[in-house]
Design goal:
Shape: globular
Helix content: under 10%
Largest sheet: 7 strands, mixed
Number of helices: 0
Oligomer: single chain
Structural class: mainly beta
Order of helices and strands: EEEEEEEEEEE
Strand content: over 45%
Distance between the termini: 37 Å
């Protein structure tokens, strides 16, 4: 399984970015794909996850209402639309995959990881 994250960059507070996670290497019908983030000096934290086949979504409270996770099965890609960005959203964002029917918010539950993409939100 290969995951390729992209779309990070520098944006002003209040702005928007869309991250992409391209998945390859197998079929993902029984997988959850998630986004995690890690800010400098902090632990990696859960952001959002989506069930690949059913479109079930879960969000961290800190991003609920501002971020939207979605997937395009035809393109094997999961997106994270980030709106109303805040300086505290600054972090390296990672996409990850886990098999199963139960959504997970713990990074230890995820078996496959992409490289990170840096999001910097200036005040």
């Amino acid at each position: 399984v290969q995951l390729q994250a992209s779309g990070g960059g520098l944006v002003q507070a209040g702005g928007s970015l869309r991250l992409s996670c391209a998945a390859s290497g197998r079929t993902f019908s029984n997988y959850f794909i998630a986004w995690f983030r890690q800010a400098p000096g902090k632990e990696r934290e859960f952001v959002a996850t989506v069930n690949w086949s059913g479109g079930r979504t879960y969000y961290a409270d800190s991003v609920k209402g501002r971020f939207t996770i979605s997937r395009d099965n035809a393109k094997n890609t999961v997106y994270l639309q980030m709106n109303t960005l805040k300086p505290e959203d600054t972090a390296v964002y990672y996409c990850a995959a886990k098999m199963g029917i139960v959504a997970g918010t713990d990074s230890n539950e995820y078996d496959y990881w992409g490289q990170g993409t840096l999001v910097t939100v200036s005040s």
